[in-house]
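Technical annex, item 7. During the second reporting period the consortium partners agreed on a shared format for inverse folding records so that results from different sites could be compared directly. Each record opens with the tokenized structure and is followed by the designed sequence. A conforming record, contributed by the partner at site C, is shown below for reference.
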């Protein structure tokens, strides 16, 4: 468990992947998706897979890889986002990408800055903790 030293601001942690408990919130769910997909179990029990958590501003992010943390960090580093509407998609309300399901208040400027700082610190902490788990890919 990592924190900012003051016990406030952000908290990050990880736990071993449990397909019965963890979800991949960043994978594209497809038509009539639930917004999150079950995590595929590890094929080889000798390979450790982790689920990463970052709690900031009263919201807990759940990631399945460091690549997903990097993708979320890239999203929150942008102050202004282009339109997320896909041309030719008629039933847009049936599926949404991961960033379209986030609470809107996380993108408000004071909280966005805190989210960026927390994701950066968590990523550094997980990388220095010896993690190199970049599987599975971000949102394919």
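Designed sequence (site C submission):
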């Amino acid at each position: 468990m990592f924190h900012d030293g003051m016990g406030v601001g952000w908290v990050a942690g990880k736990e071993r992947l449990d397909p019965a408990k963890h979800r991949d919130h960043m994978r594209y769910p497809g038509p009539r998706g639930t917004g999150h997909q079950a995590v595929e179990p590890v094929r080889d029990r000798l390979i450790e897979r982790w689920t990463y958590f970052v709690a900031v501003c009263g919201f807990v992010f759940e990631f399945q890889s460091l690549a997903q943390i990097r993708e979320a960090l890239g999203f929150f580093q942008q102050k202004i986002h282009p339109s997320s509407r896909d041309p030719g998609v008629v039933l847009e309300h049936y599926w949404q990408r991961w960033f379209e399901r986030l609470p809107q208040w996380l993108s408000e400027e004071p909280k966005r800055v805190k989210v960026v700082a927390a994701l950066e610190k968590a990523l550094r902490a997980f990388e220095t903790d010896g993690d190199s788990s970049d599987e599975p890919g971000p949102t394919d």
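Helices lie at 66-77, 109-128. Strands lie at 2-3, 10-16, 23-24, 37-38, 50-56, 59-63. All partners now use this format for quarterly exchanges.
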